[in-house]
Recover the amino acids of this structure.
């Protein structure tokens, strides 16, 4: 097999691993919408309960249910508190049933559930349609897009570097250096800026907090520093393989777990709980 064909195969493997990890992380994260099915007398409706909302406006909950014999209600309260539940009836706009959750300060959370009726008969158990939503500040696209793209490519080049190291390919050091640069800019520069816009703090990982996302980025970055240093003058594939495996394991951890949370009693943002 010639070198061009080998590199094409290595790139394909890296892309497949990266896309698989990205999809898994996205679908298992605590901010990914909870998807349910609502069964009525005559149809089945897709229900999407959102668990993350950014910006300064209220969070609109919108359900595509054209059947006018169906109505609904939401109940919500601040999380985690002992507040009493607030009930809000949904209103109808054409085929949609709509209600809104009140805006919360960055890192503030609400728990809410959704109840539907058809001609006065309950269609679902409210406890099954229950989620916790976290609010965050608006992140400018000029920060969000570079961060997401750089972190995606950092993961892909990390996988490629690991594959090349396993194959003892002479380009493994090149892609090791590229991974380091991508993580540096995407994770250690744009990451804190994005965190500041979203939750009001540049860094909530070690040693200042327990934010899992920040700490995951830090761990991956440290391992790539080691890999770069170890391969500076002499090729040491084992350190590249270790860094790539650690990075892959980190990316498989659901995004935003143990993230920032507003303590409503103290008014401070805590992390890691």
């Amino acid at each position: 097999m010639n070198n061009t064909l080998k590199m094409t195969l290595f790139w394909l493997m890296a892309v497949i691993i990266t896309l698989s990890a990205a999809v898994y992380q996205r679908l298992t994260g605590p901010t990914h919408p909870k998807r349910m099915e609502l069964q009525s007398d005559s149809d089945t409706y897709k229900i999407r309960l959102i668990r993350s909302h950014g910006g300064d406006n209220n969070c609109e909950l919108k359900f595509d249910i054209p059947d006018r014999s169906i109505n609904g209600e939401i109940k919500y309260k601040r999380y985690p508190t002992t507040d009493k539940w607030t009930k809000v009836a949904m209103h109808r706009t054409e085929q949609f049933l709509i209600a809104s959750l009140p805006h919360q300060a960055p890192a503030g959370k609400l728990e809410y559930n959704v109840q539907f009726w058809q001609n006065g008969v309950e269609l679902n158990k409210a406890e099954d349609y229950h989620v916790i939503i976290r609010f965050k500040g608006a992140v400018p696209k000029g920060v969000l897009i570079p961060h997401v793209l750089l972190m995606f490519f950092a993961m892909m080049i990390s996988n490629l570097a690991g594959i090349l190291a396993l194959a003892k390919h002479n380009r493994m050091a090149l892609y090791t250096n590229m991974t380091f640069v991508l993580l540096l800019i995407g994770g250690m520069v744009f990451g804190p800026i994005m965190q500041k816009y979203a939750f009001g703090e540049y860094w909530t990982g070690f040693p200042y907090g327990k934010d899992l996302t920040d700490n995951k980025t830090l761990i991956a970055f440290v391992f790539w520093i080691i890999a770069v240093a170890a391969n500076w003058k002499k090729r040491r594939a084992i350190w590249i393989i270790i860094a790539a495996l650690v990075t892959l394991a980190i990316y498989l951890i659901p995004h935003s777990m143990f993230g920032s949370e507003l303590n409503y009693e103290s008014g401070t943002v805590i992390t890691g709980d």
In short: The helical segments are 3-28, 141-166, 172-188, 190-199, 212-230, 237-252.
